[in-house]
Amino acid sequence: MKMGDLEDINHHIHDRITSIKHMLDLSVIELPQNKMKKLGQELFALERLLEEFEKGVDQQKEQLKHLKELDEVFQKYLQDGQHIKDNIPPHMPRKKGPLKGSEPAINQKEAVEVPPAEKKHSKSFVREMEFVTMPEFESIPQYMKGRVTYEQLNAAVESINAAVAAKYKIVHQSIKTLNNHSRKLHQRFKDQETKDTKGQYFVVEDDIREFTQMKVDKRFQGILNMLRHCQRLRELRGGGLTRYMLL
Q1: Are 241 and 202 in contact (CB under 8 A)?
Q2: Which of 59, 81, 153, 214 has fewest C-beta within 10 Å?
Q3: Is 66 within 8 Å of 74 (Cβ atoms)?
Q4: Which SS3 state, helix, strand or coil, does residue 186 take?
């Protein structure tokens, strides 16, 4: 029942009560039989209207209760969404750069004026392995995943990125600025390079041991298989070494 219907019933009840009051004012004198009958009909009709009015009020109360419950649910969802937004895990993939088709247009004159040095990566640039997305993780065969979770896999990605960053920080530094241990590492890194690794970023198992807390064991090998499946790295063997090259 709508609010407008309740207002109409209210007006109708008011009119009925007014009519009954007029009859009662005349009750001091003896009323004819037909007037007494009409008074009874008015009272009966008024009782029916009151029942309908009470029913409408109950329906409005129930609707109000339902709306309050919906508001509480909405507020909870709003709080949960804000909590998720404020606590996004660091390993969650993030889009880098504008979406396809949204790049700002560059005219020919601007393209010519860009210095060649800006188009190349600086020596301090180090490539990072992108975190594995949930759809990619779910595409990995179960026999390959074993008990490794999504969070554990991306934690390994973070550790490998840390090893790559630490290695190439030494590689990009001048030998004169390095201490004895770092100089030995620098020489080792150079000795491990081949013509196939030129311009690429890679680590070996010794780098993982040197720069991270990860254990290089059977579980680690399983994680590498998963990352190869997700096309995050590939193996390059030679000289008794297995190089894990970032893609």
Answers
A1: no
A2: 81
A3: no
A4: helix
Tell the residue number behind the tokens 């934690």, with chain if given. 155
Note the residue count of the chain. Answer: 247
Per the CB < 8 A criterion, the answer to whether 233 and 227 are in contact is: yes
Q: CA torsion angle for 64, 70, 75, 79 (degrees, to 10)? A: 160
Q: What is the greatest pairwise CA distance in the chain?
A: 126
- Tokens at 5, concatenated: 């219907």
Residue 232, Cβ density class (10 Å: 0-12 exposed, 13-18 middle, ≥19 buried): buried
- Token pair 């030129």 in the structure block, residue: 198
Q: Could you tell me the pLDDT band of residue 201, with boundaries at 50, 70 and 90?
A: very high
State the first-to-last Cα distance of the chain, in angstroms, to the nearest integer: 66
Q: Distance of alpha carbon 211 from its chain centroid, rounded?
A: 31
**90 CB-near residues (< 8 Å, 6+ apart):** 158
Question: In one letter, which amino acid is 176?
Answer: K
pTM (2 d.p.) = 0.53
The SS3 of residue 231 is coil
Joined tokens for residue 241: 């070494």
Judge contact between 60 and 1, C-beta under 8 A: yes
Pair of tokens at residue 118: 């800006």
Q: Nearest 5°: CA angle at 246, between 142 and 210? A: 95
